[in-house]
Amino acid sequence: MLLETRAAPPFYKNGFVLACERTREGVIIDPGDEVEDLLAIVQEHQVDVKYILLTHAHMDHITGVRRARQVTCAPVYLHRDDNFLYEAAGQQGRAFGFQVEQPPPVDHFYVARLKSGTTSQGAAMGVPGRASEYEPLYFGDYEVRVHHTPGHCPGGVCLQVGRKETMGKQLFVGDTLFAGSIGRTDLPGGDYDTLMASIRNVLFSFGDDAEVFPGHGPKTTIGQERATNPFLR
Ligand SMILES: [Zn+2]
Ligand SMILES: [Zn+2]
User: Fold this and answer.
1) Rounded Cα–Cα distance for residues 96 and 187 (Å)
2) DSSP state, residue 151
3) CA 152 to ligand 1 centroid distance, Å
4) Which residues, at least 6 apart from 117, have a Cβ–Cβ distance to it below 8 Å?
5) Range of 173's domain?
6) CB neighbours (10 Å) of residue 73?
7) Which ligand is nearest to the CA of 57?
8) Ligand 1 mean position, distance from CA 106 (Å)
9) 117 alpha carbon to ligand 2 midpoint, in Å?
10) What's the rounded Cα separation, in Å, for the pair 228 and 233?
11) What is the mean pLDDT of residues 95-121?
12) Closest ligand, as measured to the CA of 214
């Protein structure tokens, strides 16, 4: 899988381009101020962007949505519980002293599966890990499973990526967990206990070898954070 990360001042928020090396289908995750860098990668590798996926709707993660959508024509996905933040992008900007242009409306909220008591395909195949409560999304030979991880904000999600019908081991966690730190919970809709439950019950369930790509800073692994993160002792 092609996986490129870029970040730009002032927030140094990570934006990602993921693509299937065989089909060239891909996704953009959290386009922000580095959006032109992401679009240059898309062009260089001739990526056919199928989706623009948001881990959550804080300002720094959405300032590039308009431009990304304009260039790729791909639909924008967000968890429904963060739409109030998305719609208040301008206010979020003002609260931090930035002028933020309102991004275009979200095209789709992540779609919840009907509760049927069945497990996800991975679980059914005996692969350890947590069943996703949302419909998966696909690009080429890859699958994105969506897991609700509130706490930093109400509609935060972890995007679990891997080859189709395998246990994806690459986690795009937004601002829920960082290398050596955890997401802040003092912004509207944040809650510390909820964040801790998301980290321990959802993120830790992917196993120590799962790679974590946070919204800011370097990548890490679940094992590394479980063992050394001072906020998770
Ligand atoms: Zn955030
Ligand atoms: Zn952020």
Assistant:
1) 12
2) S
3) 7
4) none
5) 2-232
6) 9
7) 1
8) 17
9) 34
10) 8
11) 81
12) 2
Question: Any idea what the CATH number is for the domain that residue 221 is in?
Answer: 3.60.15.10
Q: How many domains does the chain have?
A: 1
Beta strand 137-139 with 211-214: parallel, antiparallel or unpaired? Answer: unpaired
Distance from the alpha carbon of residue 207 to the mean position of ligand 2, in angstroms: 24
Full-model pTM: 0.93
Lowest mean pLDDT, pick from 68-72, 123-127, 146-150, 181-185 = 123-127
Confidence of residue 129 (pLDDT cuts 50, 70, 90): low
- Alpha helix ranges (H) inside the chain: 35-44, 65-72, 83-87, 89-95, 121-124, 192-197, 222-228
Question: If you measure from the C-alpha of residue 23 to the centroid of ligand 1, how many angstroms do you get, rounded to a whole number?
Answer: 32
**3 CA → ligand 2 middle, Å:** 19
Q: Stretch 33-37: mean pLDDT, rounded?
A: 98
* Ligand at shortest distance from the CA of 85: 1
pLDDT band (50, 70, 90) for residue 116: low
CB 25 within 8 A of CB 42: no
Nearest 5 degrees, angle CA 209-CA 11-CA 110? Answer: 60
Tally Cβ neighbours within 10 Å of residue 43.
10
Q: Tell how far the Cα of 216 is from the centroid of ligand 1, in angstroms.
A: 9
Ligand 2 centre from 70 Cα, in Å? 22
Q: What is the pLDDT of residues 156-199, one digit of tens each?
A: 999 999 999 898 999 999 999 999 999 999 999 999 999 999 99
